[in-house]
């Protein structure tokens, strides 16, 4: 019997609705929803483990997968089955995780698994924000202690008009691409890029997003009303006992305060707090494994951590001071250098306090683009950034493995920050790869990567429009008091309420990423953070421009020199040759790399060389290959083949004509071999070029009629 489904159609903007359906598929999950916008459908499920995870953090896992079958496609490559998640899938999973995680209560340590499958991929709407709404609805139906609902939307702006959940075509035309998540009363997550928009425009976009978010949240409440409230999941909070926290505050509060107010460095700060935790555990427990109340060493250490957190937040809100002595709007000390690495195409070191990033640039050809083969996209990226966070950057001994979710996320954030100033391919036809390696970290290494990348681009001679800088803003909220912090430390990120990263030029914002640890952020506080970040960004740009103020006029001597030639598209085959034979031979002869492609009905030959002489040699060879023989002209050719009826003579590279036996001499020719052999040079006249490209040659004008000898 067909199950009866509950469906809610939610009009989030006039004449555009998103539907939520439950009760038809995946009914054994604690919560399951199919969210649909246009022809794009996402199955979202939420499942909760009955047992408690022994870790000391909330074990939430969010997965997102785009099934190729959903778009009527088969995965490329030899393996025709989806494998590890793509960067797009990883980034989308992070967007959902960051939106829902703050809305679970402290002390909840049951595993929660949210899974999103794209089961139908339409041509108009991407599935990422649809999955965000579906995930929230699935959690609401699961009975989890989730303080939702939330909704995710995308905001674009085309011709000055804001559009919520634009089509993919509209997104291409938009100067804003923001993904915004929030509750009915506050925003909880923002991420996206823009083409140098003002802080006021950013707020307008967020306001537009929030109006639709409210409608989508109300629609989820209606879905719950339709199917009935789920049975709440039973659990017990695993929190540090308040009595123990008060005891530790009384016994060790002064020592914690002395440490927080003392001279700051990351090593001494964390080491000192660690020593205090060990001291307290030893004194409270002695030789016993736990106290009569059942407190363990771990409980005592956690209680000292709570005292530290309260003291640090009090210091910021009540005194306006921070643990390293800065005021709330101060940026840490800066130093930077360009050209540090002699063999790369461009490099820079950017250091802010105890956060340091080494950036490098590699310039390549069109062969070096990053292919993107996804359900919603099949394209090539000529600009990309790879961020790496090795364990030594935080003094840890660990393994180097493939990129983690965080590294993929930071790579994309920094890439988005710089993309608006990268020149178009017709102006600068190189593939650009940026590597940013974190050398030291004490907060906001992704923003340091933006600064290092911008400096390295200018050092490499990439004609970027303007330099870009980034800054991370923090927040501490105590009751009605709110403090916005500029350039947060790692500890301020850990113990604070917000991490808001903003990048841009002097003229506007290029990218942002906001994560909350509380249930939302008001419009006024967000505007204050944006304006405060602008001052910090300009301060950093001032320092960057003292080191290098504009791109170098010349590329590195180690960078390839690219030359582009336009040719008749009908001659592309001649340049490539059978099986690539011709282009390979030219590359070997001239020590160059050559790519040949057709763009908008024009043949494009790109030559990459390490020096000008090699480039010129390759250019000349290509021109010879694509040159069109002209009727009535004389040529010196090479005999390529001999037949009974004549000889085939190559008069230009890959341009061979027939010298018929009757055109070899004025007299009767009994054997072609009596006149020429393969490899001989012979002067000929081009009589005719047929419509199919075949050429008819003659030797007679250069042969004396009396003795048959060449003139």
What number of domains?
A: 5
User: What are the segments in which pLDDT stays under 50 over at least 5 consecutive residues?
Assistant: none
Number of strands: 29
Rg over CA atoms, rounded to whole Å, is: 34 Å
Estimate the global geometry from the Cα principal axes.
Answer: elongated
- Biggest sheet statistics: 8 strands, antiparallel
- Name the strands of the widest sheet in spatial order: 8-7-9-10-21-20-18-19
**Total number of helical segments?**
14
Structure description:
- It is a single chain.
- This protein is an alpha+beta fold and 711 residues long.
- It folds into 5 domains: 6-227, GHMP Kinase, N-terminal domain (Ribosomal Protein S5, domain 2, 2-Layer Sandwich), CATH 3.30.230.70; 242-319, Arc Repressor Mutant, subunit A, CATH 1.10.10; 334-477 and 526-547, Ribosomal Protein S5, domain 2, CATH 3.30.230.70; 561-626, Ribosomal Protein S8, Chain: A, domain 1 (2-Layer Sandwich), CATH 3.30.1370; 634-702, Beta Barrel (OB fold (Dihydrolipoamide Acetyltransferase, E2P)).
- The chain is 31% helix and 31% strand.
- It is built from 14 helices and 29 strands.
- It has an 8-stranded antiparallel beta sheet, sandwiched between helices. The chain has a 6-stranded mixed beta sheet with strand order 1-2-3-4-6-5.
- A hairpin with a 2-residue loop joins strand 7 and strand 8 (161-164).
- Helix 5 (242-261) crosses helix 7 (297-319).
- The chain starts with 5 loop residues before the first strand and ends in a 13-residue tail after the last strand.
């Amino acid at each position: 019997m067909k199950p009866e489904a509950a469906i809610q159609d939610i009009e989030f903007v006039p004449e555009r609705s998103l539907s939520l359906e439950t009760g038809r598929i995946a009914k054994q999950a604690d919560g399951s929803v199919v969210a649909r916008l246009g022809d794009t459908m996402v199955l979202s499920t939420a499942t909760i483990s009955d047992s408690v995870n022994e870790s000391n953090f909330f074990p939430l896992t969010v997965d997102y997968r785009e099934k190729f079958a959903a778009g009527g496609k088969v995965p490329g490559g030899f393996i025709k089955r989806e494998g590890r998640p793509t960067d797009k899938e990883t980034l989308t999973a992070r967007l959902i995780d960051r939106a829902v995680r703050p809305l679970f209560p402290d002390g909840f340590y049951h595993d929660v698994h949210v899974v999103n499958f794209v089961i139908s991929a339409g041509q108009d709407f991407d599935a990422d924000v649809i999955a965000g709404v579906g995930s929230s609805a699935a959690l609401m139906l699961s009975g989890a202690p989730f303080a939702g609902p939330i909704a995710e939307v995308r905001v674009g702006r085309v011709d000055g008009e804001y559009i919520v959940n634009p089509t993919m075509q509209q997104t291409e035309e938009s100067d804003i691409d923001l993904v915004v998540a929030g509750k009915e009363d506050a925003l909880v997550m923002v991420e996206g890029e823009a083409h140098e928009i003002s802080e006021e425009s950013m707020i307008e976009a967020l306001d537009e997003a929030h109006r639709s978010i409210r409608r989508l949240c109300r629609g989820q409440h209606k879905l719950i009303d339709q199917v009935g409230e789920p049975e709440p999941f039973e659990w017990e909070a695993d929190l540090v006992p308040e009595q123990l926290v008060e005891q530790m505050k009384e016994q060790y509060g002064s020592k914690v305060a002395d440490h927080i107010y003392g001279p700051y460095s990351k090593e001494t700060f964390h080491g000192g707090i660690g020593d205090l935790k060990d001291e307290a555990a030893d004194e409270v427990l002695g030789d016993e494994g736990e106290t009569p109340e059942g407190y363990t060493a771990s409980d005592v250490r956690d209680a000292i951590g709570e005292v530290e957190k309260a003291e640090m937040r009090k210091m910021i809100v009540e005194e306006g001071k921070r643990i390293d002595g800065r005021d709330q709007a101060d940026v840490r000390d800066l130093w930077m250098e360009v050209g540090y690495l002699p063999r790369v195409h461009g490099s820079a070191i950017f250091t802010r306090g105890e956060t340091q990033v080494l950036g490098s640039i590699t310039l390549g050809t069109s062969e070096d683009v990053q292919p993107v083969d996804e359900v919603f996209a099949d394209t090539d990226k000529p600009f990309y950034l790879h961020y790496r966070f090795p364990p030594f950057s935080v003094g840890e001994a660990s393994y180097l493995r493939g990129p983690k979710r965080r590294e993929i996320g930071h790579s994309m954030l920094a890439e988005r920050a710089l993309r608006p100033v990268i020149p178009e391919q017709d102006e600068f036809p190189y593939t650009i790869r940026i590597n940013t390696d974190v050398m030291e970290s004490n907060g906001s290494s992704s923003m340091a990567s933006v600064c290092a990348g911008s400096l390295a681009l200018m050092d490499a001679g990439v004609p970027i429009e303007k330099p870009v800088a980034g800054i991370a803003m923090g927040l501490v909220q105590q009751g009605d008091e709110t403090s916005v912090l500029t350039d947060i430390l790692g500890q301020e990120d850990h113990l604070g309420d917000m991490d808001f990263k903003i990048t841009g030029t002097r003229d506007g914002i290029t990218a942002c990423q906001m994560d909350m640890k509380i249930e939302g952020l008001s419009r006024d506080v967000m505007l204050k953070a944006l304006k405060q970040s602008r001052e910090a960004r300009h301060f950093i740009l001032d320092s960057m421009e003292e080191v290098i103020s504009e791109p170098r006029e010349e590329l590195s001597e180690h960078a390839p020199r690219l030359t582009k030639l336009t040719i008749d598209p009908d001659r592309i085959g001649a340049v490539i040759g059978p099986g690539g034979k011709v282009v390979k031979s030219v590359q070997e002869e001239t020590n160059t790399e050559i790519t040949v492609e057709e763009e908008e009905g024009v043949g494009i030959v790109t030559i990459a060389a390490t020096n000008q002489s090699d480039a010129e040699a390759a250019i000349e060879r290509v021109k010879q290959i694509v040159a069109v023989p002209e009727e009535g002209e004389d040529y010196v050719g090479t005999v390529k083949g001999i037949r009974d009826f004549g000889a085939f003579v190559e008069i230009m590279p890959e341009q061979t004509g027939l010298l018929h036996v009757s055109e070899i001499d004025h007299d009767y020719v009994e054997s072609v071999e009596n006149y020429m052999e393969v490899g001989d040079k012979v002067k000929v006249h081009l009589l005719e070029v047929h419509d199919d490209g075949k050429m008819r040659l003659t030797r007679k004008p250069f042969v004396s009629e009396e003795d048959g000898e060449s003139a």
